[in-house]
Predict the structure.
Amino acid sequence: MKSPTQAFADPNTRVDKYPPKGLVRHSAQSETIDVLADTWTYLLIREAFFGAHRFAEFQRKLGIPRATLAKRLLWLEKNGIFNRVGKSGTHKQYHLTERGIDVYPITLGMMWFGDKWMCEGTPPLALFHETCRSWFSAKIVWQETGEPVDARSIQVRIPSDYWIPKPKRTQRQRRNTWDGSVKGRRPCSVERMLSIVGDRWTFLVLQELFHGNHRFDDFTSNLEIAPAVLSQRLSNLLRAGFIEKDEERGGYNLSAMGLDSYGPMILMKVWGETWVARDNRRNFEFIHPSGKPVKPVAVCSSCRKPIHARDVAYVCNYEPPE
Ligand SMILES: [Zn+2]
């Protein structure tokens, strides 16, 4: 059987495939992972969507250690995801900023992915779109054409400053400590997806596959990842079913499941370019086979309109934490 990756649109002509010698990708990706893929951080944003505002509420609903909670709330505030209202004690509340609210489509995208690929039986949450009065799931489509996003048919246009000199190695400020275990008290499809892609290296390897790369050596040279670390991340992705070995030409291909993770991943990319990129760089553009630039968007499966957090009600198919 032909692997799905072999149908990628001219992978060799993709302008984002190989960094020129001595250069690396300049993207908001790393910062985006720090914000979105740290599990506790993500779970706090999720609880805020569920209506939690106070320290004690977050603590009770997540069972998170106090010191960890205090640190993460401060960090979310510093990074402009939460706005703190009230000065101290029980008056203190945390509200999502516009930047935080914009995480919602990504959440829906990850939920759709987790429900489809990582969940047996009834999905943990049922979503209701108030606007069209229908139960729905999210679909990630190109806003301009309404077609489902597909990594294989898309080309990209990169800004002139996409490749930058390798930054000096710096000690990372915060380690991603995700160990694959479930931390929250809610059964959560998003958390299941994050149990795989919430690891920084795994996330970056997956990105390389979407850039059209598939060989071990491409990953090591594009990412400057140690071979042992890479092997371990590739076996995680194989075990989780995101990739398959390509017996014919060597290397790895995205499976049908891996290809489906493209939607949530590019929603993260767009979020990063909107909210994390610090200067006024021109964005990376997705180019449809028709030649037109397109943008990914999460829409309602019923009315096909973009979804906003304020328009969604939900029912838990489990006993929610009080
Ligand atoms: Zn709808």
